[in-house]
Design brief:
With about 180 residues, the protein is an alpha+beta fold. The chain folds into two domains: about 130 residues, Alpha-Beta Plaits, CATH 3.30.70; about 45 residues.
Length: about 180
């Protein structure tokens, strides 16, 4: 591989890291060709890009970013590595890894970056699946902010009906008396 080809791979990878704010680094060593093909098929069906990349290329691409990814150097960028990207869903790769591991435990999560927060180690898989996206958090906050206003409005509307009912009952009593 020429120096220009290596540079192109690093630039392409750096561009993906910049445009997609979440990626997963995995290891699939010891898998047979059929197992790797099954993994790639699952990734394709879910819109996940799966690329086997040299650790040095990943390291150089991460160095071009503003975020500090040096914690990945000691533990994540060792052995065989592959990177998983999904342009929209930050949980999709974690869910795929968990599902794939039900039948094949050779696929390991080494690390992930979600909105520039680092998650290192296979024990972070359940945390990554439970992690809420920015849109989900914004929706929850808006719901919480709207809740008190809705309660006040419904209280005023309900209270108005009660007051009208009480006044009607009192006026009917006066007329009857």
């Amino acid at each position: 591989m020429t120096r220009d080809e290596k540079g192109t791979i690093i630039e392409e990878l750096a561009g993906k890291f910049q445009t997609i704010p979440f990626f997963y680094i995995t290891e699939a060593s010891g898998m047979s060709v059929a197992e790797v093909n099954q993994l790639r098929r699952m990734c394709f069906e879910r819109g996940i890009e799966y690329k086997v990349v040299k650790n040095t290329f990943i390291k150089k691409a991460l160095e071009t970013l503003d975020t500090d990814y040096t914690p990945f150097n000691d533990t994540v960028l060792k052995g065989q590595s592959a990177v998983m990207f999904h342009p929209e869903n930050q949980k999709a790769p974690a869910q795929l890894i968990k599902e794939f591991r039900k039948t094949n435990d050779k696929l390991q999560l080494k690390g992930a970056s979600i909105d520039y927060s680092l998650f290192i180690g296979a024990d972070q898989l359940d945390t990554l699946i439970a992690l809420k996206s920015k849109q989900e958090l914004i929706g929850e906050i808006i719901g919480l902010l709207q809740s008190p206003a809705k309660n006040v409005i419904s209280g005023l509307q309900g209270g108005g009906n009660k007051i009208a009912g009480i006044l009607k009952t009192l006026s009917e009593r006066e007329e009857a008396a």
